[in-house]
Amino acid sequence: MDTDRELLRRRLIATGLVAPQAVSVHDAVRRLACMQGQDLRGVMTSIALRVPGSSKADVVDAMNRGVIVRGYPMRTTVFALSATDLPWMGELLRPSFARELERRRSQLGTSAEEIARAGDIALEGIAASMQGGPRPGLTRAELAEAWRAAGLDATGPKVYHFLVNLMIEGLLAYGPWDAEQREQRVIAQESWLPSGNTIADRFGGDRSAAITEWLRRYLISHGPATLRDFAWWTKLGLAEIRRALPAAVEELVELEIEGERAWASPEVMDAADDVLRAAERSFLLPGFDEIVLGYKDRGYLLTPEEHRQVVPGNNGVFRGLAIDRLRPLATWKRLQRAAGEKLEVTPLVTASISQRAERDLERTFAKLPR
After folding, report:
1. Count of CB atoms within 10 A of residue 341's CB?
2. Residues 250 and 266: beta-carbon distance below 8 Å
3. Residue among 334, 316, 326 at smallest CA distance from 351
4. CA dihedral 237, 239, 240, 243 (to 10 degrees)
5. Residues 1 and 262: beta-carbon distance below 8 Å
6. Under 8 Å between Cβ of 140 and 163
7. How far apart are CA 39 and CA 32, in angstroms?
8. In the chain, which ranges are continuous DSSP H helix?
9. How far is CA 174 from CA 181, 184, 364, in A?
10. In the list 36, 101, 124, 174, which could disulfide-bond 288, CB 3.0-4.6 Å?
11. For the segment 269-309, what is each residue's pLDDT rounded down to a tens digit?
12. Which whole number is the average pLDDT over 142-167?
């Protein structure tokens, strides 16, 4: 791949932001495998952006129907993904979390026994909510209250720690939408997720076959991308990934990115001229969109100066990114005003916003999923 701009062009197509192939919000999520989801409203926008004519209401509907959930399949980070993928993806990576979770338990003064008890309490409360209650599942606040009522020290960061542990262990997930709290309610994976989606069910117990499926899906939906991109993204080991490679890249196009082998789908590499040109339009991307977070090296998109502006203090909180004509242009946010929503953009230190770009960004803002 000759230039960073061309790499961005192809990745905008692959990730479904240009000429999207998804026919539903569930299809968009499943195609990407996982979408980083700690900014809930942001990931809902990112999903809807990849399905023409869809809105956040369509994402909420998919959550309420149980086809899109959020959980912790990898990197101790919450992701939106298909309910049919969470069981086997979580199973693949669960062993890799053990040391980090043990370290965090030590820092917070909790124990495995305490977390197991929190799990029992959570499952009991969620089961009760499924028996004729007004809404399935519990909010995070309701869970914390149930834990405290049972004598657990569920205060401050311990609530988050309990939840993360129980989601990584495959007990809980974020499921249906709570319109009052504007968050997903916590549900039990066993009762909410469709059955038949463990590694044994889907891949006959073949771990390598599961990695092959995930790697192929990643390369099709993110490529051009490298094995190191996928290894960083999932935290799977390179040795396992290399064993899965031959089957995963059948019928994909191989190329090089800065001397490193990479792969992409033929549809991306052979895209028609009108699709290639469409990638030059303006984009307003939520802060944690896959274009920014889906690769090991963000240097193809942002200079070090720009990266510091998009992630101030390198604190892990990404601002929304405006892209115009295959160049990062500004950070952006949505302001609520009495007269309605307003777009606020802050030019990157390396860029200036022309009147043409300003008009294009305003038009893009007016079309954002709501």
Report:
1. 12
2. no
3. 326
4. 150
5. yes
6. yes
7. 17
8. 4-14, 25-32, 40-49, 56-64, 86-93, 98-108, 112-129, 140-149, 157-168, 189-192, 199-203, 207-222, 227-234, 238-248, 266-269, 273-278, 290-293, 304-310, 355-366
9. 13, 5, 30
10. 36
11. 999 999 999 999 999 999 999 999 999 999 999 999 999 99
12. 95
CA distances from 203 to 92, 206, 213, 247, 281 (A): 12, 5, 9, 14, 41
User: Token pair for residue 152?
Assistant: 């657990």
| Residue 18 CA neighbour count, 13 Å, CB half | 27
Joined together, the tokens standing for residue 165 give 């542990």
C-alpha separations of 368 from 123, 126, 281, 330 in Å: 38, 35, 14, 17
180-203: pLDDT as tens digits: 999 999 999 999 999 999 999 999
Identify the pLDDT of residue 60: 98
Q: How far is CA 76 from CA 104, 164, 166, 312, in A?
A: 11, 7, 12, 22
5 within 8 A of 326, measured Cβ to Cβ: yes
Task: Report the SS3 class of residue 221.
Answer: helix
Closest CA to 135 of 186, 85, 169, 87: 186
CA dist., res. 274 & res. 278, Å (int): 6
Q: How many CA atoms lie within 13 A of 65 on its CB side?
A: 12
Kindly report the backbone phi and psi dihedral angles of residue 258, in degrees, each rounded to the nearest multiple of 5, phi listed first: 50, 45
294 alpha-carbon distance from chain centroid: 9
Tens digits of residue pLDDT in 124-141: 999 999 987 678 999 999
When the pLDDT of each residue in the chain is averaged and rounded to a whole number, the result is 96
251 three-class SS: coil
Compute the radius of gyration of the chain from its Cα atoms: 21
**What is the reported pLDDT for 119?**
98
